[in-house]
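Running this now, will post back.
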Amino acid sequence: MQMDNEYHKEVMDIVYLLEIYLKRPVGTGEFQTILNWVENYHMSLDLIQYLIELSFKKEKANIKYMDAIAKNWYLADLKTVEEAKKYSKIRDTIIFPIKNAMQIYARDLIKPEIEIIEEWARKYEFSTEIYEEACKRTIKSTGKPTFKYTDKILNNWKRAGVKNLGDIEKLDDAYNYNNKQYTSKLKNVPEKKKNKFHNFNEREYTSEQMNELEKKLLGF
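Update: finished.
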């Protein structure tokens, strides 16, 4: 019973907090949403409080918006306020733009994908525009959001010392120039003299002759 009392108090604390922000009583549907956060998403009181504060800070004070964020946090396996703050910062600056650049519209990013993006942020420290450019090139080349392919692009740019989009343009120009030079060299290579084999006139066989040759080769 003690656990039930604690659970009831926790839920009512959340309801009271939300009513303060909304400046009105919480409706039945909103109350059910709060229960879902606690029972199914296993969100702590501190995490829900941060969720409510964050929503009002962004001037999106409605339960549907809060519930969408809560779902994202649950899918990302976020348990603490610190994890949520870190996720929110990366999401606003990198994750959401990458999601769009990868043309992932019908679903949320899953935890492994988010972890890859977080690793990019730590490893490469590129601007959002560079991540977006790498994602666009991935879609253009593979036709799908292949994070491993994007990582190869980013790794090559990091090794090349890329700092901005202008550096990428220079790399593209150098690549195109080298390709033109190589193609030009191939065109200027003198044609080799034909040997006796090249001068050999290929004999044409009828279907019957081909069948006979096949039989001989097979030992018939």
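Residues 165-188 form the longest helix (24 residues). More later if anyone needs it.
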